[in-house]
What we know:
mainly alpha; flat
Amino acid sequence: MQALVQDKYQLKTLHEEIDLFDRKLAHLLRYEAFASDADRDAAARRITLKRDQLARAARQMAENGVEFNPSELPRSFRAEPEMSVTEAEAPVAPVPAIVTRRKRRAAAQPVA
């Protein structure tokens, strides 16, 4: 039996598969029609279990030191961008409102 090579290309493939399962799950929950809620939950559970298995493998590879590009992470792995301390403490100046006046059309003016 051949062992999988744990390198950055395998990790990239795992990230792509995780992103695919995220999209499949979103499609299933939004668009698929099921006879009952129990059927929908069972289908969602199957996809979620497969996705979780891939996610565990990807996180393990990252912990083992396999390099990856942060832009290639699945959308579900990406964290919200953190604000630096200077951005959080910087005062925000209010945006001045721009007031423009519109000219009224004269009612007696013929439209050409």
